[in-house]
Amino acid sequence: MSAGSVALVVPEDIRIPSWDLYEVSIPCTVFGKPQPDLAEPWYDLRMCGDGTSVEGRQGDEPAGSGLQLRSRYGLADLAGADTVIVTSVPDACVEDGAPVPGELVDALRHAYDGGSRMVSLCTGAFALAAAGLLDGRRATAHWMHTAQLAERHPKVRVDDSVLYVDDGDVLTSAGLTAGLDLCLHLVRRDLGAHVANQLARRMVVPAHRPGGQAQFIDHSVPATDPRGLGPVLAWALENLHRPLTVEDLARRAALSPRTFYRRLREATGVTPLQWLLNQRIGQAQGLLESTSLPLEKVAERSGLGTANNLRHHFLKQVGVSPTDYRRTFPAAGGERPHGT
């Protein structure tokens, strides 16, 4: 497992509205701050200017408002990076159909042809699509812009219902916090579940939200509130190996099953059974990454029952088999995995 280099495309000589800075700051926070106690070396982050000169203001915002970013690196420095991230394109490219700057398109194609993993956050998907990197692929963006993305790029299979899409060497996310979810997902892929979980804890954010979770939710995670869902779900996470049911959780929360179902769905955007399955798949991922346990044991410890059941749900949720997933991560102690 390796962190590698990350080239972040930033708008150079473009005045960025304050609300667009969030997506730029996410990769800087995740990949730019060394974490020597988690992984050494950490990622090598380079901010690369795209050379555009469009002024990013909207509506009645006065000319010259926003912040200017200047970078030491140019688009030529995208080539050779292990990962290239595009967080946004000028608003005119989204709202008015203006073309994505040709220099950026060419640089993205060149980086991809050279073997870089390509990532977009929010409207950055328009840049990857303009470069032809999303043709024939499933991809997403912020739900407010997916209609324009689908209309402008009919070869892209746009999915507006998910937080992010991992298509191997090309990954896309919805906007705002979904971009953080995708960046943590990349850390999980590169350095394993333990590192990603510890980093998320330091950032005080959920360790893992599956990419297939809906964009349209009231809360990303259940808050610790007077209704008491937090402690119940924390208990469930410690007891995933047990055959838990909605009735079990509702009883522990001192709620009726119907009320518990409604409150959990309001808090997470998924049903209690889907929430349990998501957590069990996450635990299975951690075991596959960090141990050489046979699949039967992984299934038992994660509450998925049998190896066949693990394979079925893992393939459906993650997109690869447990065997293929495990091959990506050396087993603990350098041992070869058993039972795969």
UniProtKB/TrEMBL annotation:
PROSITE patterns assigned to the protein according to its UniProt record, in alphabetical order: HTH_ARAC_FAMILY_1, HTH_ARAC_FAMILY_2
Keywords: DNA-binding, Transcription, Transcription regulation
Pfam (any one): DJ-1_PfpI
Residue ranges constituting the HTH araC/xylS-type domain according to the UniProt record: 230-328
SUPFAM superfamilies on file: Class I glutamine amidotransferase-like, Homeodomain-like
InterPro entries (alphabetical): Class_I_gatase-like, DJ-1/PfpI, Homeodomain-like_sf, HTH_AraC, HTH_AraC-typ_CS, INH-QAR
The protein's name in its UniProt record: Helix-turn-helix domain-containing protein
Lineage, top ranks: Bacteria, Bacillati, Actinomycetota, Actinomycetes, Kitasatosporales
